[in-house]
Amino acid sequence: MAWLALFPSRPDELELDLHGYRVVTGERVARAKIAEARANGFRALRIHHGHSTSGADAHAPNEGTLKAAVLALARERDIARLLDREPLVGDAATTLFFRVTRRANRPARWTSLPRPEYAPRAAPPPGAALPGEVPLFAPPARD
To answer: Which residues are CB-neighbours of 139 under 8 A, at least 6 positions away?
Structure first.
């Protein structure tokens, strides 16, 4: 099931799970949450896209998977200028690290996640914002 939550050990990082979305919807959701996370002052966003099921090495950039869509987003000019460094790409998740935001939204502003197209089996972590819920997350204050 799709969800957005604070990363358990780092309150300035978020996790976004795209399971349950098709590629087009997942890309739209990821684009929105990347912009919102950066605008709200978070330092990183870990996007769970799942293992790629295309290609011999489980990643073929032009095959239409969520992983390929997230990697393509990270290369777009509008998104790349928000990033502090190259994304950390894993088998099932990609982490984006943002540049420091000088004027973060206070209070944090979020949009709710759209309803997923299908329901995967995994349960969201405690405290996660589910589709249809507006998250209340805000990063800790920086000195």
So the answer is: 11, 12, 40, 41, 42, 43, 104, 108
State the Cα–Cα distance between residues 140 and 21, nearest whole angstrom.
30
Residue 138 — very low, low, confident or very high, per pLDDT cuts 50/70/90?
Answer: confident
- Which tens digit of pLDDT belongs to each residue from 27-77? 999 999 999 999 999 999 999 998 766 554 544 555 678 888 999 999 999
Classified as helix, coil or strand, 64 is coil
Gap between the Cα atoms of 95 and 98, Å rounded: 10
pTM, rounded to two decimals: 0.87
Residue 12 main-chain phi, psi, to 5 deg: -100, 15
The amino acid at 126: P
Phi first, then psi: what are they for 35, rounded to 5°?
-65, -40
